[in-house]
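Example record

One chain of 133 residues, shown exactly as stored in the release files.
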Amino acid sequence: MGGGGGRMNSHTYAGDRIRLDLAGGAQELAQARRFLSVYAEQAGVGEDRTEELVQAAGELFAVGAPQHWAKAVSVREDLDGLTVVVDLAGDGPFEVGAESELLLSALSQQWGWRREPHVVQVWCEMALLAPPP
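Predicted structure tokens for this chain:
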């Protein structure tokens, strides 16, 4: 999907999310990567797909920098995949660079962002199984 103001599919709102609040600082991305790796392992996601999930989440963290920074990451298992949502705090215009758009489009089924009170949420939906060659 990509682009500004994207909306998550309606099924994205169903179910519980597991959320990790981040304190900020240099360790936040490492904490989020461990969190997502453990979640993916427990969900039975293969190693290659887990690496792609962690890479996509890292890209979500970078979107909007330096005016926006990660405040929390959450993950949810859907029927056919995982949805990762990163809450970004900060002020100023929110723009997604062309390189981020390309990477997120290549790594995920869909992705987008939307403004919420006090945060911008960036999200991506990842298939649990790798697509056939």
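Notes: The chain has one domain: 17-127.
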